[in-house]
Write a structure and sequence with these properties.
mainly alpha; Growth Hormone, Chain: A; 2 domains
Length: 253
């Protein structure tokens, strides 16, 4: 319970974690369908699927190297919220709109490139704001809040694709005339539309985070734990000096 109490008592950390809850919900909702969408759109071409996955993994490695060399943005919150916007617009959106290996691989690379910066920036914020001696309890709850949305999305994505989006985007479907020009029609088009929807809503989540000062200014509103320790040590030092001065004065008298 301590982890929940700690996070809920700090609006900036709670807001940051709620942003992650929603972005994980949205991302899992679409990327659960990555494999079936590509197979449906390519006539079960496993070579295209494997190529898209492999090339996307290269982006993840490149993103990790980029973060190691660069260290991420100075304002970590920009790495978090800006990363969410970039992943949504450059990852999920073209993943749904694209209909060839080039677009799927490019979207995968962009997703893999940005994700380490996003996660690394978020981790840096939490490690700097939460004292080390309680990080285990707080981080356990933090991950629970962020990741509990993933199974919810995974369990709902498949049924929604089969029962709603795929029939709606089939030839003559109720949504085919509206979105057919964007994602096409036929097998896989409904799942592609789900990627597009996820991209739009994911970008809105990132932009929404900037609208709340508690989230946008988390680094300024919450002092780093080492700063608080230094402040306490300074106060203790001043108290000690004052006590010594008093003792010296008594001895002199």
């Amino acid at each position: 319970m301590f982890g929940f109490t700690y996070i809920f008592a700090r609006p900036s950390l709670l807001g940051l974690q709620l942003v992650f809850f929603f972005i994980n919900l949205i991302a899992s909702f679409s990327f659960t369908l990555f494999v079936p969408m590509i197979l449906a759109r390519t006539g079960n071409n496993e070579l295209v699927l494997g190529s898209a996955q492999s090339i996307g993994a290269v982006g993840g490695v490149a993103g990790g190297l980029l973060l190691s060399l660069w260290g991420g943005p100075k304002r970590r919150v920009n790495g978090v919220l800006g990363g969410m916007i970039l992943i949504s617009l450059l990852g999920s959106l073209p993943m749904g709109i694209g209909r060839t290996l080039f677009w799927w691989a490019t979207a995968g690379v962009m997703n893999g490139l940005v994700l380490p910066v996003l996660n690394g920036s978020n981790q840096a914020i939490w490690q700097s704001k939460v004292p080390p001696d309680i990080q285990g309890r707080v981080f356990a709850v933090r991950r629970l809040i962020a990741q509990i949305s993933s199974p919810i999305a995974m369990l709902s994505a498949g049924p929604l694709a089969d029962a709603l989006f795929e029939p709606a985007m089939a030839e003559g479907g109720v949504l085919a005339g509206v979105f057919g020009g964007l994602v096409g029609t036929g097998p896989g088009a409904g799942m592609a539309l789900m990627f597009v929807i996820s991209g739009v809503f994911g970008a809105l989540v990132g932009l929404g985070g900037y609208l709340f000062p508690a989230v946008r200014n988390v680094e300024e509103m919450m002092p780093d734990h080492d700063v608080m320790v230094d402040a306490v040590n300074t106060v203790d030092m001043v108290d000690t000096v004052n006590k010594v001065d008093k003792v010296d004065k008594v001895q002199q008298v």
